[in-house]
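Box 3.1. Reading complex inputs
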Amino acid sequence: MIKTDIIIIGAGPTGLFAVFEAGLLKLKCHLIDSLPQPGGQCAEIYPKKPIYDIPSQPEIMAGDLVEKLMTQIQPFQPGFTLGETALKIQKQADESFVVTTDKGTQHRAPVVAIAGGLGTFEARKPKIVGLAQWENKGVDYIIRDPEKYRNQKVLIAGGGDSALDWTIVLADIAKEVTLIHRRNEFRGALDSVEKVQTLKDQNKIQLITPAEVTALNGHQELESVTVTHQGRPKPYTVDYFIPLFGLTPKLGPMADWGLEIEKNAIKVDNSLDYQTNIPGIYAIGDVNTYPGKLKLILCGFHEATLMCQSAFKRIHPEKRNVLKYTTVSGITGFDGSRKEAQKSTIKSIK
Amino acid sequence: MDIKITVIDREGVAHHLDAPTDMAMNLMEVCKAYELPVEGTCGGMAMCASCQCYILSDHELGEKNPDEEAMLSEAFHLKENSRLGCQIVMDQKLEGLKVELAPE
């Protein structure tokens, strides 16, 4: 069981900045995110796109913003459970909470802050009749361990970076790799597109475009897929069909935690501290809603700050506290590091 | 000047909307402003297809840019007249535009 002061569900910009504000109050944080890396949408969807409305940053790439936040919170040594989805939240007799992930990892803290953005990222599934019946019987939406496909016949569908990247990786592992896409053009890093071109030229992979998978066939397990190319359907024998059409966010398990939900977002008390209808559980950033809500990173930062002040009072009801300015007090990290403003020199001039 | 457009939602109900042309708003944003069920997950970067719609009127909409082409090529429920609402900017030429929201 991982124990901390604040469990933060969602490691996007708002969740990351909450670590900093909590750290100033000497509260420790542990973040849970279903994605394998921190940064949320900024890292997953648009790392190379600029953001123009972060105060004092006339222009910053979303990926750079995440990197800077990681540097900023480093002294406060946050813990991370990445690649796992928060599934359950249970209130304990002592008023603390236990959050359990889909992989069974348990976390315990007196405060939970949900910074889940638009929700958990789930694979976009193509509309093929009967697709669901082949899930885990030959159809995979996410590649967790490439070794699973060693000496297997694999067919990948998609036209973006993940389809290209996995085609490149599996070309060396699988017995046969076929990549199909609805168009001849691919949207991915130039380097990856060129690598796939080379693999095709060397006959290490098979490329079928423009084409799509229109049916799945088999008995107990998937045995073949029907690929429709230039209007003609043709069966291909495969062991695995891996559609990689990107990820889409869904509120997911959070919707069943007994929280008041309005328009796919969690209702909070914005006049005070962004607490939900369950005392001790807060919701900050894009995942929450209140009158006048704006889904902006800068608003998430503000909400995270007020949430931490309230969390402090919940965790230490007996302690008095006042707001401190980092310029005056500096930053003392949990790692023993110390940053502070340079003291002015007092010296007489003769 | 506002223009009048018609958006048919996923239940088949037609909504007649006044869309401003002076706010650099796109069709996805107009739908959101009227609280129609358009998610606009990616915020308008042509990266999610949650604003896919079918163009029912015969307005000249201009060419799709490469981002829209690429996203639509991975979108589901695709039709000949599919477009991404976020890439259609409201202007006078779109007076009377009629679209239908694609299934989620």
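In summary: Residues 24 and 89 of chain B are 7 Å apart (CA to CA).
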